[in-house]
Amino acid sequence: MHWRAKGVLQKVLGHVPGGEQAHYLLQRRFGGLRGFRREFDVKMDDWRLMVGHLRDVGRPIAGARLFEVGSGWYPTFPFACYLGGARQVVTVDLNRHIRPALVRNCAANLARYTALIAEACGIPESDVRQRQQGLLARLERGDDVGVASEGVVVYEAPADAARTRLDGQQVDCVFSNSVLEHVLPEAIDGIYREAMRILAPGGIMFHSVNCGDHYAYVDGSINQLNYLQYSDREWRRWDNAFLYQNRMRAYEFVERAAAAGFDIVLNTECAREKRLAELASMQVHPQFAHIPPERLCVTSIDFIGRKPGTVSA
To answer: Which segment of the chain is annotated as a signal peptide (predicted)?
Structure first.
């Protein structure tokens, strides 16, 4: 599908009655929700990488109090953390996207990952398997996410990650996966400030950001730097409520976190030769001309910011 056509279609659906349901059905029939298993496997690989990063900085999943920004269509990360022994996982979203059928499918597919979760979290696989079987059984009898996860996963939507109802200093880790690239820049600053408030001293904030042009996933004629050819005014023709892209570069997410007071302890920013070559072959809009090519071309980043202070027991 041509990327401009998708942009226009999504823009129209964002302004008509029933547009959200129509968008969901199109995603199930033609989009990212069509191949659930493949999409789920990608998410679980992302979860594995996140857990490895958290472990490296001294924050294991078992016993942790977690807060997820952006729940999405189904709670892969919260459920995997629950199986891994998390104490609590609060997950919030601006819109209530999750669907019972997708949630059940998510829980069922986790049966293929009990060994991985056990190894990543340092707990017996028998414990993970028992939780997974119980989770699925409760979901199949009609329980909601909270009851099915024995009160560990708390799903709140609509909810604003920049204005939570949580008490201060009550969370060990705030995280997101492929979310911040879809958030208004000023709202990102608000999310960082709220993370600083709710994190316990020494707590960490982990974000994995996919900051390339997402239209490249549906149109093979363009690459992930395509949207850098357009001004903000031009880009608004195709930006829309279902696939808003802020076009922030990877380093900007990290710099804003540092400005919010976080100590950056992980930054995977890396200029890849393929992206540098793609950038050199295209006409970048002047509004991006001040950014060095080795920073402009980066389309993904993982980073961790730590709240200053001593980690409490």
So the answer is: none
Q: Would the pLDDT of 181 be above 50?
A: yes
Pairing, β 153-156 against β 263-267: unpaired
Q: Is 207 left (phi over 0), alpha (psi -120 to 50) or beta?
A: beta
Q: What is the pLDDT of residue 156?
A: 97
Q: What residue spans define the domains of the chain?
A: 35-208, 211-301
Q: Given a cut of 50, is residue 23 above it in pLDDT? A: no
Encoded tokens for 161: 């990650």
Residue 93 to residue 95: CA distance in whole angstroms: 5
pTM of the model as a whole:
0.92
Average pLDDT, the chain: 92
